[in-house]
């Protein structure tokens, strides 16, 4: 019997002299959101910043958006810069509709976000 496919993975990594990266792949919904919530809570929100790489995000419901807002709130509390990278056009449309395009900082790729946060 094979294992069921995991709907979400979050890979955490430090970059040399740069921000901490959370790479999110799969479906972010009310079932899988606790995984990203734990990763956000464990991430070192410091002066180097945090990048949330959403290139592999295939679905995001309101619970997932709430987790991203929680990351934003943590960045405000700690003073750590936060960037969202590689957001799909569909997800950008959702962010625009709900007004989150006004609070998040978006980057076309993780590399661009890392470069921007290193400054």
Task: Chart the SSEs and their pairings.
Elements: E1 8-14, E2 20-28, H1 33-42, E3 50-60, H2 62-78, E4 82-85, H3 89-98, E5 106-107, H4 110-118
Parallel strand pairs: 2-3, 3-4, 4-5
Antiparallel strand pairs: 1-2
Helix pairs in contact: 1-2
Question: TL;DR?
Answer:
This protein is an alpha/beta fold and 119 residues long.
General description of the model:
39% of the residues lie in helices and 28% in strands. It is of the alpha/beta class and 119 residues long. Strand 4, helix 3 (89-98) and strand 5 (106-107) form a beta-alpha-beta unit. The termini are far apart.
Name a few traits of the molecule.
119 residues, alpha/beta, Transcription Regulator spoIIAA, 28% strand, globular
